[in-house]
Amino acid sequence: MEMSLDDFEQLVSDELDRLPDEMLDGIDNVVFVVEDEPEDHSDLFGFYDGVATTERGQYGFGELPDRIVLFRRQHLAACDSLEELRDEVHTTLVHEIGHFYGIDDDRLHELGWA
Fold this sequence. Notes:
The chain is α+β, with helices and mostly antiparallel strands. It contains five helices and three strands. It has helices at 5-18, 21-24, 72-78, 82-100, 105-111, and strands spanning 30-35, 46-49, 66-71.
């Protein structure tokens, strides 16, 4: 599948808007970023770069934001249609937001979000 960076960023934004408010209400000081691919050229679809809420001590003013990164090329390579792409982006967003809330990969697999 092919899609420009701008169009993919818009798709990610649209999928964020579709997530339930309950999932997003607790997110503070987090930026969502789209990159073409991981620097290490791994096959990751996304990455949470930060400290999970369950592991934080005091979190105060002046902290750099956590980042949730989605990798465009991995998503496009894995999908054959726009519908599949939306589903995969949705799953990746939920998965990485789960890491923000301290949910590990094993539990995310159990819940069907990995």
